[in-house]
Amino acid sequence: MAGSDQASAVQVVVSAVQGSSKYRYVAEDVIAHIAARELANRRNTKEAIKATKNKLHQVGAAYMPQRATYDRWLAELRQAAGDEAALRERCAEIMRQHASTQERLPILGELYGEVSRRIGAIHSVMDVACGFNPLAIPWMSLAPDAVYYAYDMYLDLAEFLQGFIALVGVRGEARAIDVSQGVPQQEVQVAYLLKAIPCLEQLDKAVGLRLLESIPARHLLVSFPVASLAARTRECWTITRPILRNWCRTGSGGLSNWFSQPSWSTWFTRIKRAHRRAQTGQKGAV
């Protein structure tokens, strides 16, 4: 297929997918990336549209609430602002709407308490494929000058999170981007990549290790599910274990801690070595 024909076919798929209420807020570059792959592997445009929608469901929609009332949620968070207990309660209620952050709720204090114990006050964060995780900011020991960068594929989610980050007095941005194609390269003190790699590897089998190596952070907090949403425990762990093994072989990080939940998540903290800053000449984040 000629380049112009390919571009036209991709745009047809993108427009069809965006016409669905379920996917209208997905960033266009995410849809286009998937559409190009599916067009190369399907017999016709109709099949590519269906396959693109299925892939978007696997990557993100399966974890999202059926109805996200972002305007109402942000209004309720504004009402709770100024009362730490009320704000945490409302954040937790919203996080329960997301399949991934829901499972983190019982250990938020332990998880982020351990992070701050190991690296001190947090001055800069990159939250990759963040979902609702920025709503956990009230549990994080962020420094007064902290900057928080949150990246996901949903435009409406990014707008909501931008409002929340500003509401809690944290500098930063929330943007809808295709993180499987890379992340912005502003260096940060710590990056979160929580249960995201198996989802992103639905798009690109090599993206996990590539992200682990390229995220510009001194510290990485990464988690993998022990089971998928369909509870196929052995299948999911068999897929993720080689990623851990390969990363350990690179010499770019050292395993520093494990967090476990009895349901389906295993947590661990990794520390990036300084070789990347030495290679690039960048000044390290504190």
Notes on the structure:
It is a single chain. The chain is an alpha/beta fold. The protein is built from twelve helices and seven strands. It is 47% helix and 20% strand. A seven-stranded mixed sheet has the order 3-2-1-4-5-7-6, with helices on both faces. Strand 2 (142-152), helix 8 and strand 3 form a beta-alpha-beta unit. It is globular.
Q: What is the end-to-end distance?
A: 49 Å
Series of H and E elements: HHHHHHHEEHEEHHEHEEH
SS class: alpha/beta
Strand content: 15-25%
Low-confidence segments: 231-239, 262-266, 272-286
CATH H level, superfamily name of the largest domain: Vaccinia Virus protein VP39
Count of discrete structural domains: 2
Q: Tell me, rounded to a whole number, the average pLDDT.
A: 82
Number of DSSP-assigned strands: 7
Strand order of the largest sheet: 3-2-1-4-5-7-6
Considering DSSP H and I runs of 4 or more, what fraction of the residues is helical? 40-55%
What does the main sheet amount to?
A: 7 strands, mixed
The shape, in one word, is globular
Fold-level CATH name of the largest domain: Rossmann fold
Number of H/I helices: 12
Q: Which architecture of the largest domain does the CATH hierarchy give at level 2?
A: 3-Layer(aba) Sandwich
Radius of gyration: 19 Å
Question: Could you name the key traits of this structure?
Answer:
286 residues, alpha/beta, Helicase, Ruva Protein, domain 3, Rossmann fold, 2 domains, seven-stranded mixed sheet, 47% helix, disordered C terminus
Brief write-up:
With 286 residues, this protein is α/β, with parallel strands linked by helices. The protein has 12 helices and 7 strands.
